[in-house]
Amino acid sequence: MTTVSTPTMTRRQMLKRVGAATAGATVVAAAPMAARAAKHGKQEVRYAMVIDTRRCSGCQACSIACKSEFEVPLGSVRSWVEHVEVGKYPNVERRMLPRLCNQCSEPPCVDVCPTEPKKATYKREEDGIVVVDDSLCIGCAKCLEACPYDARFMNPFKGDPVKTKGNGVADKCDFCLHRISQGVQPSCVNTCQGKARIFGDLNDPTSEVAKLVEEYETTVLLREKKTKPSVFYIDADYLEAKKDPKADQYFRLDTHRRELSSKRWA
Amino acid sequence: MVNRRHFLRIGATVAAATAASPLKTALAATETQSKASSESGARQYFDEGGKDYSYLRGTEKEAVPSACWQCVSRCPIIGFTEDGVLTKIEGQPNSIRSLGKICAKSQAGINQVYDPDRILHPMRRTGERGEGKWKRISWDEALGELAEHLKRLRDAGEPEKFMFHYGRMKGGTSKLVHNFLAAYGTGTIGNHTSLCEGGKWTAQELTWGSHYDNWDFDNTQFVLNFGSNIFETHTNHISTAQRLITAMVDRSVRLVTFDVRLSNTAAKSTEWVPIRPGTDLAVVLAMCHVIMREGLYEAGVPFLEFCKVTADYRASVDDKIEALKRHVKEYTPEWASEISGVPAYRIVEVAREFATRRPACVISYRGAVAHYNGNETERAIQMLAAITGNIDNPGGRCKAVGASWNYPKPKKTPKTRKLDLLDGIAGQIAFPTHHVSHQVFERIKEGSAGRPEVYLWYCYAPVYANGDCKGNEEVLKDESLLPFTVCVNPFYDESAALADMILPDTTYLERWDWEDMVSPTQIPEFYIRQPLVAPMGESRNFADVCCDLAKKLGLKIGAKSMEDFVEKSCKKTKIVKKKARGFRGMRKKGVWHNKRDKPQYFTYRQDVKDKELNKETIIFDDTTGVYWDWKAAGVGSREVAEAQGYTHTKKAYRGYVAQQFGDLVYVGFPPDKVNKSGYFEIYSSLMEERGLPPMPTYMAIPEHADLAPDQLVLTTYKVNVQTHSRTMNCRWLAELYHDNPAWINPGTAQALALREGDTVKVSSEIGEIETAVQVTPGVVPGVIAISHHCGHWQYGRFASGKRAPEGVDDIPDRDTRWWNRNGVHPNWVIPNSPDPINGQQRWMDTVVRVTKIKST
């Protein structure tokens, strides 16, 4: 029989832990926060998302919320959910991994962007969101190659057809900049029934994301690539299963995307 | 009004103009925002919704509250429009049911409105039936012709030969359409509940009276699940699923799921217990055995006062306990293990956990009830909940609470007449309380109950949604059986293709209604549906069409349009008028509940006023302990009522008032549709009278005995991004789920020499299909699992690749369908076969042969 993400803590234990964590946080946790802020220069805000996979039932509401928010063309995604099925009957598990652009602090996509003098894709200094300026993008797709997470796609329905030679522009998640700038949660966060997606400012120790990152052991995708993602996962233990699938073990990854990418992110 | 062509063009224009970088718009907005932020300190908290902004222009979209209809959950929503075009749907943040959340399907409702394959004009066929040749006609012509037919039948004294058959019809629409049908005089009204979960409802009507169970996850400590895929498809999906997942993570509530398949629900459960199809009943009975044997029924003892467990309703609780012990004595875990494949120790452990973690909630759905023994499975589940005291209590299995609207009704209606087509083959089904809709065509074909001369269906997909697609097609095509057929549909589906006339319905996002779906908090929520956009083309809401038809036929049905009906209902429903500011208030807010309302639990312990009991027309029925009003039940006199008794008076339940429990009189568990007493009937005298076991008793599925090695049990299921048959036209949903290779366990695959990707023939006694194979350990051995949803051969380009007769061709490139496969529909091999007790379609019982026809 399968055991998936068994919550073992009682509510009391949980509250205790949260209490302890937050009480100490203001003083103790201030150090890493300050260090982080210092490292990013004048960056006051670092928008981040915590994805608590225990709360994700794989319902795909986030996928459609994103699709409709941005009229994402069929065949492409800015936000998606991967399902990983592993095990041997009857000990089988299926785990869900919501995905989006990691808004890396060291974004490889920005490094390769060739436009001068201003890069078409860049990290916003004020809040760490990696964006694409459609008016500057020349459609070279180098950033798609550079992204280790497969988070970008070419959107032929955006940009200047002449400038992009008809390729369209690179497109990807921007944490719903047009919504958060108006004080509304990102579209995927708004619709998440399990509240698996939590969004906020990691540099503010009182924010829910900062508290969660402090309290829980979180993972980021492909830590070894040193991209420093701003998307943190709680209880995404199957990342390891993915990296080291036992030869005799059943393993199925469904990305629900148009193609299973040849360059999987793990 | 923006028509569809215009809308499609907007997409293109916007694309061309996008050099006007959306980022810049957003950046401009950030500047204003960060100024505001610096004044009020760093902003960490964002609005949870209720607002949306154009990603292209940065402007705020217009927000209109309404209600979803993609599935029967009918969640409150907010639609966001730009220049009259619907661009986003979100949940209604003020709803106490959905808490502002909606599912993938709900958000893809936009695709329904802008489906390029909609029907936008009334059409009459010009070729042979089913040939696909059509001519546009005017509404005047269409309704003129229909009204002529209806007049002719009525004048001939045969209104019953107008058969109305609906699939989903809820809320106010159901009332107004029924007003029309009642004023006209036909009672030949079909539904499709036996395809859904009608059997579950019948079993509940036999035990606790009314139907529908709410699962109180907010207050539960443990959830035991038999065959519900609540995280993907429940009838109150988002409202309940989110509460369950929250309970699991925040309060460490354990969820144990018995299912033949690793659904996402099973996957997210604390434990998935694989079980052979159709054997849940054995496991439930064995759990009852463990609880009675080990004396774990202590918490259930007070509730047993309210249960009928023996033939004598006056039996003492001790007698009841003895009777229960006797009844479940033979159902040992070892016995159940042999049948179900579930290890005996797991049955014991889960039974103990269910009985001792209080309160606990047992939930169930089609995986458990769409079987030959489904009625008994649900009754046994009710028994399991009852003996542990988990009925209608905080954290348990509760009675449904929904908004109670008052609405206009016709003043005078003729006595209705009906054709006996609805309840299956005569005498075969003991309690068809929700009809046997999947056998309606068989009844029409066989002809002994007469045939409709006008057959009109609404929001129903008879060809696709029932079993035996081929048989359905044959009947619907046959003009000698059905001389005149009318389909009301916004889309050209498999059934519309066989109609004589199509009336273009609006989608749910273009129409009015009031709604009343059950609340997971036990507090009723009132909400309305209002148009988010004007109806496309000439499409018209069917309820409005009924108002027109009524006028043509000289009938008064209480409203002149659906909007009028909703407005009048807001006036007639006192609390809405007074507290929710009536129609205007509902339009503005969309949802409303009374903040003073307390959650409704233990409803059976409500007192009955002496005044009511002492009414002259009330009599006490000694054999059941029921107080009933013979006049309200429609009996001519007290003498006749007393002579017949409560149980044997037709529709006596309509006069039910209260139940005697020992020395006390309470509301009890009032009956609905059958003459049960006000007890929670674990022991059903009604079942007994039909020669059926009065207590929930094991029945094996006859076809599952002695299967040959190449015979598998076909099990069906639904996924999170599709409804049974009405969403595959939604492009965003079809993109996510459009193909359904059959799931087979690796052991079974090996025995049949099958490998992943092989093509197999799946054949049953009524037909065969071809499908690819997916070898997965997520399904029990001996089973082949094929989902519903797929294999459309009409329903527009996104569903089937096939253009509808009046489909538009200028679909923007961004919406190009990139997938070629559209899967297979299992209903070609599933016969229309009912549970013999309640008539539920047996979706999970078909035995098939699986043979390889092509290797990968």
What secondary-structure arrangement, pairings included, does this model have?
The complex is a heterodimer of chains A (266) and B (856).
Chain A: E1 2-3, H1 11-39, E2 47-52, H2 61-70, E3 79-88, E4 91-100, H3 108-112, E5 121-123, E6 130-132, H4 142-146, E7 153-155, E8 169-171, H5 177-180, H6 187-191, E9 197-201, H7 208-215, E10 218-219, E11 231-234, H8 238-243, E12 250-254
Parallel strand pairs in A: 2-11
Antiparallel strand pairs in A: 2-9, 3-4, 3-12, 5-6, 7-8, 10-11
Chain B: H1 4-16, H2 22-40, E1 62-67, E2 76-82, E3 85-91, H3 104-107, H4 109-113, E4 123-125, E5 134-136, H5 139-155, E6 162-166, H6 171-184, E7 189-190, H7 193-196, H8 198-207, E8 213-215, E9 222-226, H9 237-251, E10 254-259, H10 264-268, E11 271-274, H11 280-293, H12 301-304, E12 307-308, H13 317-328, H14 333-340, H15 344-356, E13 360-364, H16 366-369, H17 374-387, E14 397-399, H18 440-446, E15 454-458, H19 462-465, H20 469-477, E16 484-489, E17 501-504, E18 513-515, E19 526-529, H21 542-552, H22 562-572, H23 574-579, H24 582-589, E20 591-592, H25 610-613, E21 618-621, E22 626-629, H26 638-644, E23 656-661, E24 664-666, E25 680-681, H27 685-689, E26 711-717, H28 731-736, E27 742-744, H29 746-751, E28 759-763, E29 768-775, E30 783-787, H30 796-800, E31 847-854
Parallel strand pairs in B: 6-7, 6-15, 9-10, 9-13, 10-11, 12-25, 15-16, 16-17, 26-30, 27-29
Antiparallel strand pairs in B: 1-2, 2-3, 4-5, 4-17, 8-14, 18-19, 19-20, 21-22, 22-23, 23-24, 26-31, 27-30, 28-29, 28-31
